[in-house]
Hints:
Number of helices: 10
Radius of gyration: 17 Å
Distance between the termini: 13 Å
Number of strands: 8
CATH superfamily: Metal-dependent hydrolases
CATH topology: TIM Barrel
Strand content: 5-15%
Amino acid sequence: MNDATREVIGGPYDFDDWNEAARESAIDFGIFVQTVAQPEETPEILALAPSQDRLAGVVGWIDVDGSRPPGDLLDDLRQGPGGDHLIGIRVAGEYVADPDWIAGDPVRATASALAERDLSLDLLTDVRILPAATRLAAASPEARIVLDHLSKPTMARADFDFWAAAIRDLARHPNVACKLSGYLAFDDEPMTAQRLRPYAETVLESFGPDRVMFGSDWPVCILGGGYRRAVELAENLLAPLSEDEREQVWSGTARRWYPSIGTVVDRSR
């Protein structure tokens, strides 16, 4: 099984901590996803990547609003130490006041530059940004887009219908996949399979298992019960699926949306 969302470096945690937590949950490989909007982080992680056998790839960060073209920034990362481990870039619309920013020209240009290099675009959004994410997907059909954390639903019953309709609209675009991730930190209440099931079922029905992938959101998931709890909830929610469908969520989707991780995984076995 693979873990498509882990945010490792920062605070008291490092790769060894993730390795131990993942091994206890029978997770074979993981993907590092950017944690801070700082240019130093991605080159640092890429340089470490070749020494980490269980690290299948790095989803990094670039300044999409900066003066340099995104293609140049991507080429710099790919030409640096460990650059062959770069599998994508994440943009964090969640932290931008304008809910339409993610559909604007800078992010579209980034999506295009990523597609030209066979890299993927992760989107960190909340519910208010989903309509803009759908416009981005429609305007960038050549780009592989990954929606992180189910777009962070509020878990409020009154907000479910809007979230579900927006998810269905986004899922109509075949270039978008969704991560079943982040759910242990959606709100302050303990997460249970019963609470999460309507959201997981909506995503699985809308995208299909072949466009859904598991992510632990480690170490953030520690706040809501830890790595094993994230895996147990996913196993519970995926139990009704066929073996082949579960394999898609645990591994197959990630290998298609981040195709270069297959080289690392196969080489390590």
